[in-house]
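Methods — Computational structure assignment.
A single polypeptide chain was analysed. Its primary sequence is given first, followed by the predicted tertiary structure written as structure tokens.
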Amino acid sequence: MKSKTMIVCVIAFLVFPTLLFAAGKVESPASAEKTFNIVFTTASVTEEAHSKVLVEFVKPRLEELTGGRVTLEVHDSSSLFSQDDELPATIRGNATMCYTDGTWLATYMPSTSMFSAGYIFKKGFVKVERLQPNSVKYFLTPAGIANKIERTYHYMARSFAEVNHMRNRIVLVANALAQSTDADHLYFFGSHDELHSVIHDLVRSESFIIPATVYSTTEQLKQQLPHPTSIPVLIWNPEVEPQLQKLGVEWVNVMGMM
């Protein structure tokens, strides 16, 4: 279906009855009783947005503003005229209004074809290309791609810097705890998430001054943790605190100390 000039039609409907109503104040009583029926023909099907806005919004609003003196008769789904015939019918006066665009109007006014011509323009980093009257493609310009790459690089650089800072702080806090408690082993406890992976990598790379282990279940921790112990378990998520409290185990949140 050809593209529709819906906005123009809606504006026309809303402006026209206002002017008509204002003109009615100076007409004679006889002429004020005159009514006008708008016959709108369209190929849009009943459930399509162009048809629904006419029936559900424009028609009741138009008739309300004019006190019923202007009515709207909508013929959708090509029930009155086909798509090829609706513009000629409107020109002949067999219909009052219809949807149209520059492609169809160019038959009668060639200059209107400019509205359906392909165009290309740039704005910032986005390029818009109109391929057909109802087909538009958006894509990045070379400058837009360069900007996207630069922003991605800086985002990745910031992310790596934050992760490295976090890794260094975890090592610092854990080693300080090991030295202050004379511990011979560090116990980390928490669910499998991003920080679990970070700490697991630190353990594998022997980044701590003493051996360390990461546990994700209380059963594992309970089996491996010596009893009694004065060494706090290292955590990073406060949601696991109730589980350690049930075990009667002290803890230190490495994130809370950062």
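Note: The radius of gyration is 37 Å.
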